[in-house]
Amino acid sequence: MTSKVLVVANRLPVEFQESDGGGTWTRSPGGLVTALDSALSRHACTWIGWSGRACDEEGPALEIPQRLHECELLEVPLTAEEVSSHYEGFCNATLWPLYHDAVAPVVYSRSTFHTYEAVNRRFCDIVASEAPRDATVWVHDYQLQLLPQMLRRLRPDVRIGFFLHIPFPPPELFGRLPWRTQILNGLLGADLIGFQTADALENFLASVNALTPATAADGFISVPGNGNENPRTVTVGAFPISIDIDHIGALATTDEIRNLAGQVRSDLGDPRTLLLGVDRLDYTKGIELRLKAIVELFEEGALNPYETVFLQIASPSRQNVEQYQRIREQVEGAIGRAVGDLSRLGTSPIQYMYQTMPSDDLVAFYMAADVMLVTPLRDGMNLVAKEYVASRIGDDGALVLSEFAGAGRELRDAWLINPYDTDGLKRAILRAVRASKTEKARRMSSLRQAVVRHDVQRWSEEFLSILNAADQQEIIDLRERAGLPL
Ligand code: GDG
Fold it and tell me: Which domains can be identified in the chain, with CATH numbers?
């Protein structure tokens, strides 16, 4: 029987890794899956999403696993054409750059929006037929913003929550979208809409007030009725996502991961200082500007190439989208130039790995790094920053963090930087490298407290309890108790 919590996300939390003549399904990397997998591992749920393989692709049919932990998995079939137009097109060539401050050109295409509608409809039909009476449906992220309203019309009995993992742009940017009202009305079909930060929430409310007849006050939006629909109240809030701190902390104490951390340093020539970047290869993550700052520090002699290594781990992402092909060429071109300029025979202070690491191994890299560089141009939250903090169980290490990541709002004792300010970034990197043990310990202990206070289990429990609250007073009480920003 289908369980009462249905998670709906563009992708299922598993992906197929091909190998000679076969392959295996593994948990997929990426922020949303990392967060939800650990949050939901203690709940029975059904996860509805696409498998990652087009249903009309040639080759032997793939049996998707029936479960991941406690979650039953249910596939939404999509054709190659739909994936290209919905995911690669409207989601990642329109919404992704627009919602990230238009840091890359935004494509406006009527045909990809029509596919976006059709794919949202496909998800809606499957959810509507699977959800038991009075079920809780938790919809995730920018790929499915029309789904809440579509589902409400078909299934008024279910509770619908929506969480946006990426930023919501300011009204002057969002207002450029030709389909802005459809998107807002789609979202307003939910009972609860959650954002990563108070800024994202404010941006959303400004667009709702400007572009729809709904009105917002004190964490609630009144949506007036029309001929077919009754007036409703939608709850909104900021729910900063987090990580499974216990899991990472436990890994950091195992001999295997500690030894691997030691091995990483020795394989890199036992540098005095190891600087690390870990990102999906995405133009929002600020990899190029980070590299520019590091290269200048080496060239000016502020960082000693005989004692310092900068390692960038980039995991492959959205490789069929043109802008991602371009950013890969740009990053790898810049890395190649830096390696050419700075290397000595047999060794280089710049190291680069383009691959998806096993997630346990990432913890060893975090443990090995003296300074972690998280410098996105814009980011909903950024889990890498929190994972690094969680792995530093000895209160050591240093985090250089962009003020334009959601995490920058919470992790105030990081070395906060503006990634566009190359001199400011260079100064912060040097301060982090040269900080005393006492200063590093003071900052890290405060960062760890911020992350421990609010782990991903708490995040999902707070969201689900507010979604299932009986009335507005209970919502107000729950919000106050959790100290959630309005
Ligand atoms: C979106 C929002 C928001 C990275 N490389 C590998 C790997 N990762 C894992 C990291 C981390 C996750 O992927 C990346 O999370 P981020 O938060 O940094 O970024 P997005 O993928 O852009 O996620 C973001 C997030 O959703 C959650 O709401 O924070 O703002 O953009 O967990 O560890 N994992 C493995 N191998 C890798 O090579 N296994």
Answer: 5-241+457-482 (3.40.50.2000), 245-453 (3.40.50.2000)
